[in-house]
């Protein structure tokens, strides 16, 4: 067996800009890993995320540290033990899944015993802005069944009201990105319930989760930054109703599957989400999300340019990946 590991940073322009409570960006910076074994190539993509102390340079360095392991034939199970969760492990793990599928002649869906993966409905994200501009975003996407609304600060009531009025037939997820405080938590949750919101994602900063204990939650609350791997779940029981599983947080599809299984056992609802990346990064998550309660895999829809070939989106409906993309 001869394996070669390649890792390449890439940049894809965002259509306009993407703004959350922590700031804005105009391009998606990703790393594509390719593992070539005897002429067969498997690929995986990750998005280094500064919120977790990751940069393009640090993730490339972490991947390089595992070059010898990858090229000697490390398995996905061994990789979980050898590397911490995060973007670097995600790219390598997903590349190993893709390589295994292509070498075996089976799809990853078949490897996961998904008899017939189906198209799924994804949320479409509205960037944080003034109420007037967010209403315009909502109006332009009012035919989408599920909108994810970025909020997190003063003026959130006006923002949400404007979106609801502009897209009255869409279900709404509010994503505060840790932007609320314990002082305004109860009031904001009541506002969300009054306006018919379906889910509130990560209202408080990670580490402040205990503020959710014992308070009324008239809207389901989903953990994002507060949960990365299955090890984080036990302490969140009774605080959150659902968890957002992202491959870049969990450190790959292998760990994400473990997280999903344990979350179901503990009674959490499942959301499968993403960073802003290309179809290559979304492809494994589409399979992970086949039975999820909420899906937020709109990364390619936010880009001015995606990979070719990419995932096929029909409005908010995203189809499972073709094998020439991934898996």
TrEMBL record:
A Pfam family matched in the record? MR_MLE_C
Q: Which GO terms describe its molecular function?
A: metal ion binding; racemase and epimerase activity, acting on amino acids and derivatives
Family matches, as CDD domains: L-Ala-DL-Glu_epimerase
Q: How does the cofactor attach, per the note? A: Binds 1 Mg(2+) ion per subunit.
Give the active-site positions. Answer: 150 (proton acceptor), 246 (proton acceptor)
Its domain of life? Answer: Bacteria
- As recorded in UniProt, its EC number(s) are 5.1.1.-
Tell me where the transmembrane regions lie.
266-289
Q: In its keyword annotation, does this UniProt entry include rRNA processing?
A: no
Give binding positions for Mg(2+). Answer: 175, 201, 224
Q: What class of enzyme is it?
A: isomerase
InterPro entries reported in the protein's UniProt record = DgoD-like (IPR034593), Dipeptide_epimerase (IPR034603), Enolase-like_C_sf (IPR036849), Enolase-like_N (IPR029017), Enolase_C-like (IPR029065), Mandelate_racemase_C (IPR013342), Mandelate_racemase_N_dom (IPR013341)
The coenzyme or cofactor needed here is: Mg(2+)
Keywords from UniProt, A to Z, are: Isomerase, Magnesium, Membrane, Metal-binding, Transmembrane, Transmembrane helix
Query: What positions does the domain Mandelate racemase/muconate lactonizing enzyme C-terminal occupy?
Result: 131-222
Q: Which PANTHER family match?
A: D-GALACTONATE DEHYDRATASE-RELATED (PTHR48080), ENOLASE SUPERFAMILY MEMBER DDB_G0284701 (PTHR48080:SF3)
The entry's protein name is: Dipeptide epimerase
Q: Which organism is it from?
A: Pseudaminobacter soli
The record lists the lineage as: Bacteria, Pseudomonadati, Pseudomonadota, Alphaproteobacteria, Hyphomicrobiales
């Amino acid at each position: 067996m001869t394996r070669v590991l390649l890792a390449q940073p890439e940049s894809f322009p965002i259509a306009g800009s993407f703004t959350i409570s922590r700031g804005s960006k105009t391009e998606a910076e990703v790393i594509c890993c390719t593992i070539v074994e005897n002429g067969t190539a498997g690929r995986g993509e990750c998005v280094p995320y500064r919120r977790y102390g990751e940069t393009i340079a640090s993730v490339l360095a972490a991947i390089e540290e595992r070059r010898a392991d990858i090229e000697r034939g490390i398995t996905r199970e061994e990789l979980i033990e050898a590397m911490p969760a995060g973007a670097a492990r995600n790219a390598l793990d997903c590349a190993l899944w893709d390589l295994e599928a292509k070498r075996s002649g089976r799809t990853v869906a078949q490897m996961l015993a998904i008899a017939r993966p189906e198209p799924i409905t994804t949320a479409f994200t509205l960037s944080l802005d003034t109420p007037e501009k967010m209403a315009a975003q909502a109006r332009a996407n009012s035919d989408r069944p599920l909108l994810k609304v970025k909020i997190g600060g003063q003026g959130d009531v006006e923002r949400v009201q404007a979106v609801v009025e502009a897209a009255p037939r869409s279900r709404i997820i509010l994503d505060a990105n840790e932007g609320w405080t314990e002082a305004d938590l109860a009031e904001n949750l009541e506002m969300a319930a009054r306006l018919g919101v379906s889910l509130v994602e990560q209202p408080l900063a990670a580490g402040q989760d205990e503020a959710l204990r014992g308070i009324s939650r008239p809207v389901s609350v989903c953990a994002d930054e507060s949960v990365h791997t299955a090890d984080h779940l036990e302490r969140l029981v009774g605080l959150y109703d659902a968890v957002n599983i992202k491959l870049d947080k969990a450190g790959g599809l292998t760990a994400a599957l473990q997280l999903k299984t344990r979350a179901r056992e503990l009674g959490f609802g499942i959301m499968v989400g993403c960073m802003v990346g290309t179809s290559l990064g979304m492809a494994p998550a589409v399979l992970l999300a086949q039975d999820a309660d909420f899906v937020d895999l709109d990364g390619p829809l936010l880009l001015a340019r995606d990979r070719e070939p990419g995932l096929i989106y029909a409005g908010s409906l995203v189809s499972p990946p073709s094998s020439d993309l991934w898996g």
